[in-house]
């Protein structure tokens, strides 16, 4: 799935044009979970709605499975399952009954009902009434409903909104399971911590523009350069040895901190060459949350911070859905 120069503006009540999506280039690789991240109002929902043909773009191009959309949408929409709004289920019917009726309505084989219930971890509660389900279970039933047509690409817009930590964990597990079975999952969120653990790759947008994209591990590497904490028997001598390598070294209690993303192996090697043996070596990684906050700082709705430059650390390789 990709977009190029995608743009959408809305006219406000005062008649001013507000840019919701401003020239967005997005690439979602095939397979795995892709986090579509950005603060509230960044343009995530607008982008998803344009992709699904629910609203029209002002300009730019989009493709799904290599087909230009919305022009070729009828050919590919069957391969896309999206939860953009809460679907309607019958409250007094069980989850299984709701899905069976839906399967008949969309001509899906009814034997799939139990398969999809199992995919979202609801099989043991399948015969309970929908109205007794927790919010997380309701959300998972909605995911199960989209799985009935066996889509290759699943699009979830803020699927964890309003869920408690247990519900969030369950949705994460469901998304991981789907990706492990070869599906592509595109999940939008403004809360990075909810997606960080499950996403293989992410795109971060703010004010309708892409500000970073790539593998989670690589993006974390672009944050404040990693510091390594070193535990060694003779910290003072070790500090001299490491300092002589041109590295920035600071004492921290009985430890030394080596800044600037020096590879731990180089630290071990330099110390061992002087008969100093490492007792402990811990890379102190910046988490994606701090990278996200750093990248999106001042880029919430209504702010006019200048762009921070091109923060794309990696480019997606391989086929795109
Ligand atoms: N129908 C509309 N009419 C006018 N402005 C709109 C409309 N839909 C969205 N917007 C504006 O476009 C911008 C992007 O909104 P969008 O809902 O796409 O953001 P989002 O990233 O999905 O945010 P959230 O996480 O809050 O859902 C916002 O400033 C929003 O107010």
TrEMBL record:
Keywords per UniProt: ATP-binding, Nucleotide-binding, Transport
Biased composition (Basic and acidic residues): 312-321
Entries under Pfam families matching the protein: ABC_tran
Descriptive protein name: ATP-binding cassette domain-containing protein
GO molecular function, one term: ATP hydrolysis activity
Native source organism of the sequence: Cellulomonas humilata
SMART domains documented for this protein: AAA (SM00382)
SUPFAM superfamilies recorded: P-loop containing nucleoside triphosphate hydrolases (SSF52540)
Domain ABC transporter: 1-232
Region called Disordered, residue ranges: 298-321
PANTHER family found in the cross-reference section: ABC TRANSPORTER, ATP-BINDING PROTEIN
UniProt similarity note: Belongs to the ABC transporter superfamily.
């Amino acid at each position: 799935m990709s977009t190029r120069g995608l743009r959408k503006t809305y006219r406000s009540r005062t008649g001013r044009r507000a840019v919701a999506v401003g020239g967005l280039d997005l690439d979602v690789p095939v397979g795995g979970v892709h986090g579509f991240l950005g603060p509230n109002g960044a343009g995530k929902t607008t982008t998803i709605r344009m992709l699904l043909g629910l609203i029209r773009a002002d300009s730019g191009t989009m493709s799904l499975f290599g087909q230009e959309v919305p022009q070729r949408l009828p050919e590919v929409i069957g391969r896309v399952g999206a939860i953009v709004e809460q679907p309607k289920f019958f409250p007094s019917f069980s989850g299984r009954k709701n899905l069976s009726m839906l399967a008949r309505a969309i001509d899906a084989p009814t034997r799939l009902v139990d398969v999809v219930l199992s995919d979202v971890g609801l099989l043991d509660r399948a015969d309970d009434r929908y109205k007794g389900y927790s919010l997380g279970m309701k959300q998972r039933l909605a995911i199960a409903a989209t799985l009935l047509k066996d889509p290759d690409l699943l699009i979830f817009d803020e699927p964890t909104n309003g869920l408690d930590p247990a519900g969030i964990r369950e949705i994460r597990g469901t998304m991981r399971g789907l990706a492990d079975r070869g599906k592509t999952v595109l999940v939008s969120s403004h809360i990075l911590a909810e997606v960080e653990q499950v996403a293989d790759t992410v795109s971060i947008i703010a004010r309708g523009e892409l500000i970073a994209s790539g593998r989670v591990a690589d993006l974390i590497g672009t944050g404040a350069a990693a510091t390594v904490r070193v535990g060694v028997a003779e910290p003072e001598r070790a500090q001299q040895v490491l300092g002589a390598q041109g590295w920035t070294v600071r004492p921290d209690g009985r430890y030394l901190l080596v800044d600037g993303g020096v590879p731990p192996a180089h630290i071990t090697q330099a110390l061992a060459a002087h008969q100093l043996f490492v007792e402990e070596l811990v890379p102190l990684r910046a988490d994606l949350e701090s990278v996200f906050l750093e990248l999106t700082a001042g880029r919430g709705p209504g702010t006019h911070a200048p762009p921070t430059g091109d923060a794309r650390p990696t480019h997606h390789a391989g086929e795109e859905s």
